[in-house]
Structures are given as structure tokens and as C-alpha cells.
């Protein structure tokens, strides 16, 4: 079965999905909409699709089976609900939004509609990450350490807290999600965010340039997440899991996995493109009607967002916030 796809958004992440979808035999890109008409036309021409005049004309169940929603988190409005009401399957980029109540309302509408849904936490699809999940199953983790360092995003909206949610919600959300995926749900969080340097790079920025987050998991494990978006001379990411008889280390956003225990120490580096694997899984799920290939649905992605929002709330309150 060919899966007919519409794309809302024609920016960098949307174009990345378009390039992946062109490699998937079952996927047919039908239409693209963006508030910037020229961007939509250029993207559509590059894949042999049409540029839709507006969202309503794109969200036509007679023309598409599924839609990729790739607008920034501040510009989603009620797109997911509109698609769900029409029975159109939905892929949504992370993070799901900036307000938990709004996202909860959308999750309810999606669940009630029965559509297939997926959220863009692509790192879950690395074979190395799945091997780590298999290894950690049933083992006792007592400490988690995660970090992500890098440089700023060029978009004005990204450096505006009310539009992006900050570095933790927008980018480090991948590490937040990896901890959940591999070690279980969060129980509580405390956090501090600083802004010592970002004004020197972007005087109009309202996001923090660094964050130090501590948390506990429902399992009883404790951990930290440290992050900075103003780190031009040192970048990268890693997540470490410590147990009494093992150590698991994921680096490069999950691309490389090291497992050490009393039996052996093994390092594996993935050759997969997790974004391609993610898009394949969504297309396959729509084609077959089975959600099984999808590793992160909307409710799951909502829980990852809840942690980031809770961390900022904890920083504002100066106290622990329970999830």
C-alpha cells in the first residue's frame, strides 16, 4: 500500500524528513504547506509534490493518509486535532509544545480518534539504543548522568524562551527522552538555569545558556542532566547508566554504545540513520494499520515534555517539583 503524505512546514527539519521519505518505497509525498509560500513551493518542486494554499486544503483525507507536522513548537495551534478529526494519521516533531494542558488536550483528541501517531524522538530507533534497552531490562540502575553541549540555533524564535522553551525543551529533550526510554519515568526534578554568556552572542536572547538539573526516577535511581547551548569549543552528548555490576555508556546522541560488566567490555557503533528508521516505522504503521513499529507515540512524547516544563518550574520555585 502506498502511503500518501502531506507536510506542514518547509524548514530544515521538514526538508530532512522529505529526504528520508524519498528513500521509502511505500511513501508518496503529495503536498506541502508553509506560511512562507516560496519555501513551500521550493520544497514541493524538489520532491514532485504540490504546494498547498493553506492548511485546510492540505488536510484533505481524500488526498493524504498521513501528515508530518514540522512547524516550530510555538506554531502548532490545533493542527494535530484538526488532522485527528479527519482521520489523518499524524507524525509530530518534538517537542510537542510549550504548555502541558494544551498538549494533554491534543493527546486526548488523538487517542479518541484512533489514528496512528508518532513523535520525533528519533534516537530511540538507533540499534545501539535498542540494544542498551534490552541489556538494561531487569537490571538495577542507581545513577544516571546525561549531558549535551553545543552552540546556538540561528533562528530568532529559538533563542526566545516563550517560543522555543529553551535548550532543555528543544534540543536536550532527546537526552531527557533517552533516560525515560531506557531507565523509566521520572519522579521529581530540581533545576537551576544560568545566563552568563548568551547575551554576548545574542543580546535579545531570553533563553538560558546553561542548565544543571537533578532528578529521581520512579525506580529509585537518581541522576543529573547538564547542558549548554553556548559551547563553541566543546560539543557532543552522552548518557551514562551506573549499576552495581555494570556500566552502560551512550555517546554521539546514541550512535556509540559501550557496555561493561564482569564478563566483558563491548563497544558498538551504529551505521544506521535513526531518522530514516523512524520515518520507515511510521509509514509502515500507517500502511499496515499496526502501531507496533512506532517507538514513541503522542502520550509518550507528552511525558518527556512534562519533565522539561517541570524542570523550568522547579528553577522558578527554587524547590523540587514532582511529576
Automatic annotation (TrEMBL):
Q: Which Pfam families match?
A: GFO_IDH_MocA, GFO_IDH_MocA_C3
* Domain Gfo/Idh/MocA-like oxidoreductase N-terminal: start-end pairs: 3-121
Gene3D superfamilies this protein is in? Answer: Dihydrodipicolinate Reductase, domain 2, NAD(P)-binding Rossmann-like Domain
> Which InterPro entries has this protein been placed in?
Gfo/Idh/MocA-like_OxRdtase_N, Gfo/Idh/MocA_Oxidoreductase, GFO_IDH_MocA-like_dom, NAD(P)-bd_dom_sf
Which superkingdom, per the lineage?
Bacteria
Q: Domain GFO/IDH/MocA-like oxidoreductase, which positions?
A: 143-243
Q: Which GO terms describe its molecular function?
A: nucleotide binding
Which PANTHER family has this protein been placed in? D-GLUCOSIDE 3-DEHYDROGENASE, UDP-N-ACETYL-2-AMINO-2-DEOXY-D-GLUCURONATE OXIDASE
| Name of protein | Gfo/Idh/MocA family oxidoreductase
* Species annotation: Paenibacillus oceani
Task: Give the source lineage, highest ranks first.
Answer: Bacteria, Bacillati, Bacillota, Bacilli, Bacillales
Amino acid at each position: 500500500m502506498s502511503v500518501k503524505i502531506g507536510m506542514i512546514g518547509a524548514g530544515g527539519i521538514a526538508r530532512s524528513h522529505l529526504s528520508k521519505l524519498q528513500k521509502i518505497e511505500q511513501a508518496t509525498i503529495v503536498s506541502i504547506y508553509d506560511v512562507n509560500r516560496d519555501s513551500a513551493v521550493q520544497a514541493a518542486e524538489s520532491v514532485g509534490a504540490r504546494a498547498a494554499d493553506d492548511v485546510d486544503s492540505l488536510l484533505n483525507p481524500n488526498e493524504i493518509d498521513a501528515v508530518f507536522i514540522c512547524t516550530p513548537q510555538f506554531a502548532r495551534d490545533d493542527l494535530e486535532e484538526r488532522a485527528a478529526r479527519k482521520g489523518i494519521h499524524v507524525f509530530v516533531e518534538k517537542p510537542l509544545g510549550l504548555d502541558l494542558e494544551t498538549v494533554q488536550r491534543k493527546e486526548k483528541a488523538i487517542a479518541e480518534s484512533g489514528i496512528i501517531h508518532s513523535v520525533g524522538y528519533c534516537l530511540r530507533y538507533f540499534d545501539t539504543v535498542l540494544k542498551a534497552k534490552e541489556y538494561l531490562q531487569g537490571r538495577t540502575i542507581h545513577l544516571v548522568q546525561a549531558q549535551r553541549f553545543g552552540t546556538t540555533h540561528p533562528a530568532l524564535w529559538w533563542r526566545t524562551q516563550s517560543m522555543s522553551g529553551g535548550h532543555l525543551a528543544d534540543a536536550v529533550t532527546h537526552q531527557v527522552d533517552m533516560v525515560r526510554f531506557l531507565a523509566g519515568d521520572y519522579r521529581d526534578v530540581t533545576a537551576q538555569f544560568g545566563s552568563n554568556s548568551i547575551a554576548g552572542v545574542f543580546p535579545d536572547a531570553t533563553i538560558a545558556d546553561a542548565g544543571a538539573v537533578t532528578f529521581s526516577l520512579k525506580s529509585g535511581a537518581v541522576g543529573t542532566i547538564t547542558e549548554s547551548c553556548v559551547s563553541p569549543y566543546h560539543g557532543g552528548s552522552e548518557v551514562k547508566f551506573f549499576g552495581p555490576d555494570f556500566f552502560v555508556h551512550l555517546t554521539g546522541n546514541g550512535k556509540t554504545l559501550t557496555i561493561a560488566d564482569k564478563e566483558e567490555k563491548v563497544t558498538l557503533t551504529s551505521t544506521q540513520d535513526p531518522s530514516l528508521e523512524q520515518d520507515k516505522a511510521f509509514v509502515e504503521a500507517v500502511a499496515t494499520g499496526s502501531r507496533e513499529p512506532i517507538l514513541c507515540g503522542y502520550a509518550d512524547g507528552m511525558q518527556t515534555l512534562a519533565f522539561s516544563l517541570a524542570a523550568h518550574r522547579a528553577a522558578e520555585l527554587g524547590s523540587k517539583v514532582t511529576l
